[in-house]
Amino acid sequence: MSRGLLGCTLLAAALSCTCAASSAIAQVPGADQVQAVTLANGMQVIVWPDHDIPNIALFNWVHVGSRNEVPGITGLAHFFEHMMFNGTTTRPQGEFDRVLEANGARNNAFTTNDVTVYQDWLPRAALEAVFEVEADRLRHLAFEPKVIESERGVVHSERRLRIEDSFVGRLQEQVQATAYLAHPYQIPTIGWPSDIASWRIEDLKTFFATNYAPNNCTLVLVGDIEPKSAIALARKYFEPIPAHSPPEPIRTQEPPQEGERRVSIAAEAQTPLLQFAYHALSGSDPRQPALELLTRILTDGDASRLHRVLVEDQKIAISADSYLDRGFDPGLAWFLLTLPAGGDAKQAEVAFDLEIARLRDGGVTAQELARARSQALADFWRGLATIDGKAQALGQYAVLQGGYQRLFEAPRAYESVTADDIRKLAADLLAPGNRTVGVLTAASTAPAQGEGR
Amino acid sequence: MNKIVATLLLFCSACVCAADNGVKVPQFERVQLGNGAVVLLMERHDVPLIAFTAVLRGGAVSDPTGESGVASLLAGVLQKGAGSRDAVQFAETVASVGGQIEAAASTESISVNGSFLARDQQLMVELLADMLQRPRLDLAQFDTLRARQIEFIRAAKESDLAALTPIYGEAYLFGGHPYGRSVDGSEASLAAIKHADLQQYYQQQVGADRLILAVAGDFKTSQLKQRISRAFSGWRKAGTALAPVPKAERVAKRRVLLIDAPESVQSYFWAGNVAVPKSDPRRPALDVTNTLFGGRFTSMLNTELRIRTGLSYSASSHFDRLLQTGHWALSSFTQTETTTQAIDLALATLDNLHKSGLEPTMVESGKSYVQGQFPLALETSGQWAAQLATLEFYGLGRDYIDNYSAQLAAVTPADAKKVIDEVFPSSSALTIVVVGNASAIREGLRKYGPIMEMKLADPSFEPKN
């Protein structure tokens, strides 16, 4: 957070009278200091100075995810998340991490359906060194067969951890694959095992050449740096990388769903799982804030509807959570129930359906809406309390939610959601015919295990 | 524009970040109430939020024997109704102002963490005071939470073995010592806990003399001090004195605990020994050495198990440092077929640390890394509240933060060598715990030492003797 009285005053104003503020941008302290430029090669650079601690978060948002894959190369976007640390034609494997860490910087990366994000957290003195190696790996990535084989093993291990050895992960993969018939959102980001085992070096080279163009990247810097110097460094290190033709747009649109789909896994499990995935909105859809408040009313905190009814009152679930996709294309609104050992999945589904019907028929109360708004607003400020949170939010809005300026309009957007907006959204999206239901049941155990607790 | 920037910079240099000399603890005030409660207040006016950490000494080490999980359940029930509000009203009140308030137990304490908008500070103090001094400890809420806690453990056994492995590890390493207790209990220990145990724990182990309340954020110290004093100075002390934690001895011989998870396609392993307490003066050298051995991406362990061989997605090591002592452990996982290959490599890497030590350039790199990452843990009001509470809890002065940077800078390869010899266990003195498909890996594990076995489905985290 930017420090000083200026920020404080602005923020206090934002909280006490968000509705009356004339300029939404001015509500977030320091928002007026954000600078964005597009380099000559098409790379976007966004800088938000914040001098609270002597550190900087530098995130490179590459606009490629599992959405850009096809059968045979599923998991490749995620594989690049690994390969980008494994050496270039100018630097051997491991050099990238060694340079960063010796300069006091830590890094990580993550991949989603839509994007691959490379994150560095560094002391400000390390900035130029980080720029140099970041630009190098975008331009000169190496494809060493031996390194690729070894990294394949790492990804297999990650898949076993997240999917094979996790019932939650296994069910989610099946639900997602079932929810989409046509759109590549059906592809699991980690990749299908047979593809992990068999993608070829040519596949990698093509994928890199297509997707890792500077004009397909958004670089976000937040922290102890002035925009002018950050942009100068971006020009020095990234601008020389030639633009290339950007990846083909994803043309396929998911056709409207025409009835409920179901998928089940019979496992040697004690704990049944239920997942509901409704086709919902893209990240830039103006109804996103309303959908977020809707899901908060259902699952955020002990006072939320699903938690109260399913977990506290009826005790037919031990947890009720939700998750919203916010990507380039319309994603899913997920509701995830974990049942007690031997729990009755049918009964839990009936109870869940009743709550959804109650929302569709009766809408939400003014009190519930106010509560969800307060929660969203407070979480918004908590998210902006660190340079890491700011870099995440800025990139998310810049790339996937209609431009970084929309981040600063979020408080206003929450304020303007009405109960009617939410009821309409529930009617549009939360219809049984618009969802995929995943059930993981205990194969052999159910009745006996349910007793005696 | 430039003017604004200049103003901000000026503010900056006046407060937290005397950047190149490392982070310093900003001004704060310490007050001790007549009943023993310690209150720590740090004003930070960057955003209109207030964060607090309330720490009650006790925690899982104060659980009755055989009933680990009492402190954890109490933490849960504290949130389920207090003062004039029942569970639903309490939750609604917190949510309606966008607040957060959450209690959890750890080995040596129960902590309540919260964050509220500055304008709600009066409500914040009221809710915290109610939670600590007037919890309802409702029987039905206790029953529900206990049943749910048991279910969470069962669910983790089916979806999160990596998280469970250290629980088995610490239980086996510390044996009957209280530092080995599973903080959140086990299926068996939770089943044995009664409502009366919870009430008794609350009477005996919770009270003003156990409380450290640290608050950081957008408030006026004088005003908040008054509010907190009013709300807490009438609180009773805990019914009993805090029992001292006995000494824990290092384990001298290597031994293996195998937990059979027949459905698992990977083996999750953990290997550790008793190490040092929080107050250990060798902290900078320990931090640098562990960073280089298993605390960052290019660490020796991750280089071997992930980068060079592709055996695992992740391999790391860490210290857990508590009041009396603590432990050090490494952990990783690999597919069932390569279990002994991966464990062999992890042990050989530890041997290599002892045999070859650390190159001076490596030590320098480790120092830069720890130094460079340190400020990121001291950024928000929530982090500062937690830090203040930690300093008070362990009796550490502000030097613990203020001088850390200089101490790191002074670490030499000889210091690293010394802590490797003195603190890092040799591979022949490790307690090894493996969760995996026993029928496939049992024979291979025999070479590491005597094997004790149990099943993942067993309701306890300790093997039956």
What does this structure look like?
The complex is a heterodimer of chains A (453) and B (465). Chain A has 2 domains: 5-16 and 24-237, 2-Layer Sandwich (Cytochrome Bc1 Complex, Chain A, domain 1); 261-450, Metalloenzyme, LuxS/M16 peptidase-like (Cytochrome Bc1 Complex, Chain A, domain 1, 2-Layer Sandwich). Chain A contains 17 helices and 11 strands. Chain A has helices at residues 5-16, 76-83, 95-102, 127-140, 145-164, 167-179, 193-198, 201-211, 227-237, 288-299, 305-313, 345-362, 366-383, 387-400, 405-416, 419-429, 446-450; strands spanning 35-38, 44-49, 55-62, 106-111, 116-123, 217-223, 261-267, 273-279, 319-324, 332-338, 435-442. In chain A, strands 1-2-6-3-5-4 form a 6-stranded mixed sheet, with helices on both faces. Chain A has a 5-stranded mixed sheet with strand order 7-11-8-10-9, sandwiched between helices. In chain A, strand 1 and strand 2 (44-49) form a beta hairpin. By secondary structure, chain B is of the alpha+beta class. Chain B has 2 domains: 26-232, Metalloenzyme, LuxS/M16 peptidase-like (Cytochrome Bc1 Complex, Chain A, domain 1, 2-Layer Sandwich); 255-455, Metalloenzyme, LuxS/M16 peptidase-like (Cytochrome Bc1 Complex, Chain A, domain 1, 2-Layer Sandwich). Chain B is built from 18 helices and 12 strands. The radius of gyration of chain B is 24 Å and the shape is globular. Chain B starts with a helix and ends in a 10-residue tail after the last strand.
